[in-house]
Design goal:
Blueprint: H1 2-17, H2 21-29, E1 36-37, E2 45-46, E3 54-55, E4 74-77, E5 81-82, E6 87-88, E7 92-98, E8 104-110, E9 112-113, E10 120-121, E11 124-125, E12 138-143, E13 147-150, E14 163-165, E15 172-173, E16 194-195, E17 207-212, E18 218-219, E19 228-234, E20 240-241, E21 254-256, E22 263-264, E23 277-279, E24 288-289, E25 302-304, E26 311-312, E27 325-327, E28 334-335, E29 348-351, E30 372-376, H3 381-385, E31 404-408, E32 433-439, E33 457-464, E34 470-473, E35 477-479, E36 487-493, E37 499-502, E38 505-508, E39 512-521, E40 527-537, E41 539-543, E42 548-552, E43 555-562, H4 573-576, E44 579-584, E45 591-593, E46 612-617, E47 627-630, E48 648-654, E49 659-662, E50 670-671, E51 673-680, E52 686-687, E53 689-692, E54 707-709, E55 725-728, E56 739-745, E57 755-760, H5 767-773, E58 779-789, E59 794-805, E60 833-834, E61 840-841, E62 843-847, E63 859-866, E64 875-880, E65 894-900, E66 905-910, E67 913-915, E68 919-926, E69 930-938, E70 948-951, E71 954-958, E72 964-972, H6 991-999, H7 1019-1029, H8 1051-1059, ...
Parallel strand pairs: 8-12, 9-13, 12-14, 13-15, 15-16, 17-19, 18-20, 20-22, 21-23, 24-26, 25-27, 26-28, 29-30, 30-31, 31-33, 34-40, 41-49, 43-51, 52-59, 54-59, 65-72
Antiparallel strand pairs: 1-2, 2-3, 4-7, 5-6, 7-8, 10-11, 32-33, 35-38, 36-39, 37-38, 39-40, 41-44, 42-43, 44-45, 46-47, 46-48, 48-51, 49-50, 53-55, 56-57, 56-58, 58-59, 60-61, 62-63, 63-64, 65-67, 66-68, 68-71, 69-72, 70-71
Helix pairs in contact: 6-11, 7-8, 9-10
Length: 1156
Amino acid sequence: MRKRLLASMIAMVLLLSLFPVSALAAERDKGSETPVACAVTEGCTLQAGHKCECVLPDEPETTEDDPAPADNVMSGNCGLYDYINKEYTDTVKWALTANDEDGYTLTIFGNGPMGNAYITEDNVSSGEPEWHYSREKITRVVIQDGVTSVGAKSFKNYTNLKTVVLPASITKIGQDSFYGSGITSITLPANLTTIEPQAFYKCSSLNGTISVPVGVFSIPSYTFAATSISSIEFNGAVTEIGVNAFMECSSLTSITLPDTVTTIAPGAFSNCIQLESFVFPENPQFTKISKETFKGCTKLEEVLIPSSVTEIAESAFQGCTNLKRVVLSNNLNTIGSMAFKDASLMEGVYIPASVSSIPENNQIFKGMANNSVIYLGSSDLISLMLQSKANPTSTSNGFDSEKTSLAVTDGGTFAADTKFESGKLATPIKEGSIFDGWYKNEGCTGTAVTTSTAGETYYAKWIELKSDAISMEYGSTQTLPTIEGVTLSNWQSSDSTIVSIEDDQLKANKVGKTTITATARTEAGVTGTLTVNVEVTPMRIIYGKADTTQNDGGIGRPYITYALNEDGTAPKFSDLLGFYPVKKGSQNGTYEADIAKDKIDLKPGMGDDGDVYYKYQNEGGGASGNIIETGTLPTHPTTDAEGNPHSIRVELKLKNPNYRFCTVGTNWQPSDTIILYVTCYEEGMNEVDLYLEGDDKPLETFEGDRVYEYTGQGIVPTTRNLTTLYTKGTSTDHSITSFTAHFHAVQEGTAFSGTHLYNQTNSHLTADALKAIAPTELGVYSFVINGYSKDTKTYCYSSRRYSIVMGNPKGEPTFDKVSSGVELSTITLSGSMKNAAGIEVAGTFSWDDGDQTVERGKSYAWTFTPDDTDHYNKATGTAVVWPSSSGGGSSSGRFTVSVDSGKNGSVTVSPKRAEKGDTVTITVKPNEGYELDKLVVTGKNGGEIKLTNEGGGKYTFKMPASRAEIEASFAKIEAEPKLPFADVSSGDWYYDAVVYVYKNGLMDGTGPAAFAPTTVLTRSMAAQVLWNLADSPAVPGTAGFTDVPSDAWCAGAVNWSASRGIVTGYSTGAFGPEDAVTREQLAAMLYRYAGTPEPTGSLDGFNDKDAVSDYAADALCWAVDEGLLTGKGGGWLDPAGTATRAEMAAILMRFTESHN
């Protein structure tokens, strides 16, 4: 112990000897309470006001807030400077301790920023740091975690400081913090955001790599200037390099700036004498290389100026004596004086034609290599580079005429790999032209030259490779273009499916745009590429004959009459009406069919191979007035009520983009539709009815579902046995014994070409035979049975329109139930799902959230994802994997499901016994002519259990902890009201809604036969509909809108809506009756109509919830929760999208049904 005390005393004496006497006296004079080490006793400190007494300190307490190092030599405060009390605050403190380097370690600790040294405020200076008198002995600085900044000038000119440790809490390094210090390396903290100017300026021993943290956006002036760093890494989004920031970094060899940099200030990398390569940022906002940025970088060999740069300031690269290659930006417009002066190894450079500003006395390229060449993009640059022709050696010129020549490229540029050589003229390139040599005169006459002589000016000669764009009609041919002075060969088409080259001619193969190219060769052997744009337009075709024409709005329309074929089909359209290419008519401005050319064979059909299809309103055969889109003309006679021939209007719609229809007459216009007037008629023809054996009424239309799920099999829209089909007329039975079955696509976009069973006796019309030709793919179809007897002059016809939609696989997964809380993902789901035909659907089961730990009795959601997602939807459900415990035998925990289905339909349930939380599926099948009227599930105490409609007659519910009873009833289907609208069909998604609003007087058509379902809903329409819904109450007075006169059709509705606060006008006083209504505006109107109930829903499930306007937020929450408004698929609500009349009808039906 005595030896240890003696050693400590000797050490303390030695430490005290390191302090200047004046410094210690100064400390005593300040009356500081800071203890000073005693030279006599270990652990003793000399107290203020005591010269010799030593007082042993109490046992030091160390806390996280005050982590003062032990064995203090000296300590004090260094928090933010208090300019009133003229002292540093104690939020941050310091302490000096001896280290193994025969010097001191300065430790900074506490919380918050350090104070700045030598900073004056209100004529009071913070002065030097308290440890400053020991600066010569401080070799190491350790700043502890919690300190957030390094104070300005804290360690300026600390030449013996070698090591600095900065904690992660540092976010700022102050100005001049380490200026001129002896540090050899620095690791910048990851959380650093601010480095102030000159922070490491003149740290000549600072070497290695500097890694700039991600949060630093600026390297200010002189930050690392005059250091020995060898490289710098940018980890974040630095945008600015300050003035002289890296000046005189003598060991810096290469730099790649991040693309976030927009500004490089003057002198930023000047006199970096070892800098060999530099990569500029690719940033459109980086537009200027500042003054003297790279001045004196004597080892820099290549400079590639990015395309964003428009200005290079004076002396930017002056003195770069090793610079050999410079590629200037084609957007450059200003070059400052002496920008590349003294680049003595540069043998050539290209100045783009974009340069328009060069100052006087510019000397830009003075000092280039002997016999070097400056290439000018434009002859206008000659006067800028040679400002004193009278004195070629004048300093106002941009080059040395005794060393350098000029060469004008006339818009030509150079390939990226072009190497400029002294005394040799390089070959430029120019898009759309071939280089034809260098000449000594601007007219490019005489003999071409290939070498240069200093002081001369040369001019490039070009042969322009240009040909007008070519426009051709489909099916036509054209000769290849030629250019005088060059030979064109090796013609190629970029897309031979559009245009091919055959026998030196162009052939138009389909409508589209492409290019053709050829190799162009001059007499001197210089080659280039000619590119010609080619567009193939549709062939204009026109009908060549018709039985007669009917005037329709001043335009002649073909009028066609035909009889059915013997097999009951309509004749081919091409046999009735021929189409030909157009030619000019006999009168000026007219066009007619060129029947001397081959007839155009247009194939009818809805499939991909069809050229045309027909659209008409089927007025016969029990098709309920449907709008038909199909590949065949009407297959039943078109007669009026008295049996007289009656024409129907048929639109012949063109699918093949290679053609365009033209109408006859002087004002012909290409179109994709021609109107036909068609009469299917035969003199003496009578219609007979179709019957099925055992029926007492004729078969007016086939009975069956209108919508079927995809199964991969042919779908026939009836379950009736057609093998017993026969005909019955007023005077004869069985007059037709052969029938034709048709399947046709009846909606555009349904890719089905149509199939038939021709002239079959009824015994051949089996379910299997029809199924074999029936469509299998998604779409809208028509199934037709018709017959025709030429002998008995009778015909029959019946049809059904139906849809095939995405299939919904049904079933439940199987799995091994568990009896402990395992992870859900460890329980494997298997089993099979089946489609509506009972065929297994391949796919994969998965838990929706497999990371959960299984709980007893809890249901977990699963999803079945079919392999064939083009035809099947996903299926979902829930399952209990750890059943609730209950005493008893094997059936404990399982409850019975009973069914009371009543009459006129069937109800089945699966499973018939289930555990609590299991999913139970109810399948409802009404009898023919009936529909489900009520379906209720009740539990043990009569409480109603929530049902989920899965579609297709399927409903599900969660099994309660008791038996469940199902009660169902069915009601007779009322005959659908006949709509007067030709643009609303029973297969349309909005059909039922239109029927509802029309039947209830809520909405009417926009014309005698048009509902206009896809027309955008206007403000006046919305007001009118809501007024109708309120039974059109009278409103005294007017709302005073300037654009709604009192006699306007919507005046009553608008005035009422405004008085109720449902709609408001604009600040201009206008209402905007014809302005479109957005989906969120419509929701807001309905919400106000409903009395602004408290919204309970949420929009969190929609990707565009943030796009909802503030005024509509509550309204949309309410509308979504009420089921009035649904998304548009993919999680999008589309609040700003316009609402259509069909959407209004659907929302109105949902609203009234849910609020009645």
